[in-house]
Amino acid sequence: MVISQGKLMNIISKTNKNNRQRSRKLLTLTGITALVLTGGLAIQSANAQWYQWSRLTGIVYTQSNIPTPNANSILGFRRDALGMLTPLSTPFFPTGGAGFPNASIVGRGPFFITAFASDQEVIVNPEKTRLFAVNSGSNTIAVFDIHQDGSLSPVEGSPFPSGGVQPVSLGLAGDILTVVNQNLLPQIPSQEASDSLPNYTTFRVTPKGRLIPIPNSTASVPRGSLPTQALISPNKRLLFGMDGGTGLLRSYQILPNGRLQQSPSSPQQLPPAAFPPNPIGLTLGLQVHPRRPILYVGFTLSNQLGVYSYEPDGDLHLLRTVPNSGRAICWLVTNRAGTRLYTTNPGDNSVTVYDIGRDPSTPVEIQRVVLRGEMGTGTAQLALDSTESFLHVVSQPAISVANNRISVLRVNRYDGTVTEVPSSPQLIPSVNNSFPQGIVAN
After folding, report:
1. CATH number, residue 211
2. What is the pLDDT of the chain when averaged over all its residues?
3. Which residues constitute the domain of residue 151?
């Protein structure tokens, strides 16, 4: 399906109109019930509840990932108190580069779901004043300033060379930005690709947002490794990565000068339990506990969650694996308190919730929710908003990219379980065979 950006936003606008009608009906029924049951006191309670809900508005960003030169963009949405997404008044912000097409990756040899083989394609700094995004199809990184109304403006000089071929993931440690260059795209010019290995490389971020390459900071990995993620430890001193194509777990120390130094046990082969018989070497998803030296790893092919401890120098030790009832566990996120861990499972379009509060080293599954929309290879990256009241999931259906979407789930503040909101999902129709990648929520 090939449509223009303008038609894309018209479709999204029509979808939003239907969602608003559903939300209004829900609010009306809720209000009537409250009045009948408790009269005037209920009105006061409803007003207080609405005041609390009104504080839960925020901004959500994803990347359109359009493969056409200079057509890639960041899509911005305002989320209201009920979780409904509405495009910003300026709905998309050009990145100055290109994404990569779905069809060029899916079905390519053993990497049959590499459309999803990366995380952290879009990130923001802790102050939520600056946004970074990959241009996977043009080997650059876009950097934006975030304004109070959610709009974005590129910093001077953006986009910047990524230091390799096909950037797919970003990690920020203070003013050090790490870029993962995957180097798997078939459409990259052969000479450029042959001269460059997949790598992790770092940049210094200036106060104005410019990216300055750090000399001798590039850590290359073998061709075909399929590095997927640049995960930064809570103390900003370690970088964790996964070679999805070979099943190797990597850890690096981030030195004060910004260079990367591989940790003693790196790279570390994943345990046999991570793969079923006749492995094809595809493992995705890394996340760190926010308060304990624990690393969680998604063992995609065996539907398990791996749990590792790590030393101050990044040395890793496998503690155990626990089952996941979803299919093809991929990307992971934890809440700030370190009591809940959420996973996406593309194989059955679901989200799994784990209790990690009682014992972070032994996650216990407490919920699995199948999201609305097309089944099959679907759920991908996920993000909690800054209040941790909503969980947002980017989905990329394998059967029809016209049904790309963002799903929004409300997080129960008492037990951390999730419920998909009535207006979800927000459709993002494909442009030139594109599928969205990455998500952040303020």
Report:
1. 2.130.10.10
2. 84
3. 5-441
